[in-house]
Amino acid sequence: MVLRGKKVIALGERDGVPGPAVAECAVRAGADVVLTLTACYV
Amino acid sequence: MRRVTSNGMPVVRAVSLVLAHVPSLVRLGSKPLRVLREIDKPIEYLRPHLRDWDAARAYVPNQVFIGNVDVDALAAWPTPWHKNPSAEAPRFGPDGEIMPEDEFFGLLAACDPFDLLALDRDLAERARVALDAHPVVGRESGRPAVRAGIASAALDERVDKHGALRIVGVDGRLLGAMLPGHDEDDTLTGQVLLENLACKATAVLALRHLLARPGAIAAVDVRYVLSCGEEAVGDRYQRGGGNVAKAVAEWAGCARATGSDVKAFCCGPMHALMLAGALVRGGLQDDVIVVAGGSLAKLGMKFQGHVKHAMPIVEDVLAGFAVHVSRDDGVSPVLRLDAIGRHEVGSGSAPLAIVKALYTEPLGRVGLTLLDVDRFSLELHNPEATEPAGSGNVPLNNYRTLASLAVVEKLIARDRIDEFVRTRGMPGFSPTQGHIASAIPYLGHARRGLTDGRLTRTMFAGKGSLFLGRMTQLPDGLSLVLERNGTKGAT
After folding, report:
1. Is the CB of residue A15 less than 8 Å away from at least one CB of chain B?
2. CATH number reported for the structural domain that contains residue B412 in this entry
3. pLDDT tens for residues B444-478?
4. CA-CA distance, B135 to B337, in Å (whole number)?
5. What are B362-395's pLDDT values in tens digits?
6. Nearest CB to B465; choose among A17, A24, A40
7. For chain A, domain boundaries
8. Residue B311 CB contacts under 8 Å (≥ 6 apart), including other chains
9. Residue B200: enclosing H or E segment and its boundaries?
10. Chain A residues with CB inside 8 Å of B397's CB?
11. Host domain of residue B429
12. Are B379 and A21 in contact (CB < 8 Å)?
C-alpha cells in the first residue's frame, strides 16, 4: 500500500497496536495523519 | 518477635476479592442505558439474558474470582463456561464471596449517609434480615442499619416529582429510587450517585472481609487507606474530588485511619499498591490498606454480543478488592519495590517498547529474566464476556505479546510460545470491571501460592487507557513483582 501523500486516520487498540504507533508508521511512509485514536475494548 | 528484612521491603499480608450479583442494575450500565434508550421497557428486553444468583454463583470464572477454583482448573474446564456450571458453588471462598442482589441493595442503603436511596418496603425488609445475619457486615459489625423501605407510591413520587433514578427489578417491579444530591449538578444525579454508592459498597464489603480474617489487623489499627476505584466522587466544582478511601474507612470502623484516592484509569490499583509499599518502606506507615469498589457503569458493557449469541449477560456482577500491605512479617509475599516496571512518558506506544518497559527492564534491573517468573497476571478479562462482542480474547493477546518478547529476548524458541502462555499465563476470569480485571483478580491465588504453594515469584502488570480522557494520547502501565518471603538471592 502506498501511503505517501495520502491523508490517514490512525486507529489503534490498547491491547494491540496503539494509535500513536500506527500514526508513526504512517508518517514515516509519507502520509499526512489527520486523526489519531486508540480504542480500549474493555 | 517480628523479623524484618534488612532493606525493609513491604509484604502483601492479606487479600480479599468480592463480587455482588446485580442483574437488575445491568440496565443502568452505561452501554445498556445508551443502547436501550429508545426501548420502552428495557428490562423486558434484557430479561431472557439475565441470570439468577444460583447461575452466577455456579459460573466457574466467578468461583475462580473468590478463590474456590484454581486457574489451572479453569484452563481445563469445558467451555462455554456458562453452559458448564460448577457442581459445587459456594457463596463464600477463601478470598471473599458472591453476594446476592437483595442483600447488596441492603448494603447500598446502609452505605448511604444522606438517605438518598429509598428501597421498596418488602425488599428493604428482606435485605435487612439477610444482611443482619451476614458474617462480616452483619448487624454486630457496627455498621449503620438498613433503613425501612417505603411504599411504591412514595417511590413513584420521588421519581416523578423529585427527579430520582428509577431502579427496576428483573421482574419489572420498582425496587427503589435514588434521589439526586443537588437540583442542578450533573455530578450529583441519581445515576452518578448510585454508581458512586455501588463503588463504596463493594469496597467496604471487600475491606470487611479482609478485616475479618483470622489474625487480621484490627480496624482501629488501620491508619491509612488508598482507594483506586474508578468512580470520580465529587461535585460540580470538583469532579473526582474524592475521597472514597476515607468514606470506606469510616464505614468499616477504621476510626484512626485517613486516606486518599489514586487515579490512573485501570492502572490505578498497580499505582496504589506501589504507593502503599512505598509508604510502608519509607516508614511513614506500618500498614496500608488498598481498596477498590466496582464499576456500575461497566455492567453489561458487552451485552449486545451476549444477546446476539443467545447467552447470558455475564457482566452482571460488581467487583471489589482489598489488600493489606504491611512491614515484613517474615511469612507473607514480598512486594519488590526494586523491580517496579514503569511505562514512562518517553516509553512510547510501540507494543514492544511497552512490554520491555513493563517486564524485561524491571526484571533485568534485579538480575532476573522472564523465565524467573512462575506466573504473570496481566489483563484478566473473561473472554466469554468479550469475544461474543468482537473484542477478542484480551488476556490471550497480552500473554502472546509477552511470550513474543521472550522470543525476542532469546529466552524461548518461537515454537514454545504456546507453552509459555499456558504455563506462565492463565485464562481470563474477571468480569469486565476495568481496574479490577487489570491483574488484580489473581492476587489471592498468588498470595496462597507464594506462602503455602509452589510459587516462588509472580508478576502483576496493569494497563490504563489514559487516552480515553482526551488529555493525552499516552497509555499507562505499571508492573509489580511479588516474591516468596525469604527467597534466596532476593531483595
Report:
1. yes
2. 3.40.47
3. 999 999 999 899 999 999 999 999 999 999 999 99
4. 35
5. 999 999 999 999 999 999 999 999 999 999 999 9
6. A40
7. 7-39
8. B49, B80, B82, B384, B388
9. helix B190-211
10. 15-16
11. 334-483
12. no
